[in-house]
Design a protein that fits this description.
With 183 residues, the protein is of the alpha/beta class. It contains 6 helices and 11 strands. The radius of gyration is 15 Å and the shape is globular.
């Protein structure tokens, strides 16, 4: 069974983060919401405060299979400024483990050199931050162990791409039908 951690920094984009958590949990994928600060409550970009399951120091990265980085302009900057999280992002990519980022957050992967030769997408205007990537204008893009999403309006596509990556295409399609996605 896969273990997923979705990381929240102050200013995260609420729908991008919570749609993913919701979809993964609907499929019984073990998913933790993790604050990158010592505070268990994190405020999103639209003033919505969310209670986290864990803080960064409580995460067992050895037993974690997937890192998810939601966007939001301020949230992305806060994630990128979190050195311990960035060390784990680098370690996950080096180990061939899955890293997912949506909206502005794929820029983190571009800045760290993790998109070289990969197909990827980000929020409009952030494409230039995806150093080395082949830009693909799709709602969500999976290339090996890297999954990227375009923005808030693509959060369900992004979450379903993660479900598909972990549990297969049939499971993702059944979930899309269950939540009446593009029916």
């Amino acid at each position: 069974m896969s273990k997923v951690c979705v990381f929240f920094g102050t200013g995260f984009e609420e729908i991008e983060a919570l749609a993913v958590v919701d979809l993964l949990r609907r499929e019984s994928i073990d998913t933790d919401m993790v604050s990158i600060t010592d505070e268990r409550t994190v405020e999103g970009s639209h003033g919505i405060r969310i209670e986290m399951d864990k803080v960064l120091g409580e995460v067992d990265f050895e037993s974690t299979d997937v890192i998810v980085l939601p966007g939001g302009g301020v949230g992305t900057k806060n994630l990128e400024a979190c050195a311990p999280l960035m060390e784990q992002v680098d370690a996950f990519v080096a180990a061939g483990k899955t890293v997912c980022a949506i909206c502005a957050a794929p820029s983190i992967l571009g800045h760290r050199g993790h998109l070289n030769g990969k197909r990827a997408i980000a929020y409009p205007g952030f494409e230039k931050e995806l150093a080395g990537a082949e830009i693909v204008y799709e709602p969500a893009v999976t290339d090996g162990e890297i999954i990227t999403g375009r923005g808030m309006g693509c959060a369900v596509d992004f979450g379903l791409a993660i479900v598909e990556h972990l549990k297969g295409k049939e499971t993702a399609q059944a979930l899309a039908k269950k939540v009446v996605f593009r029916q």
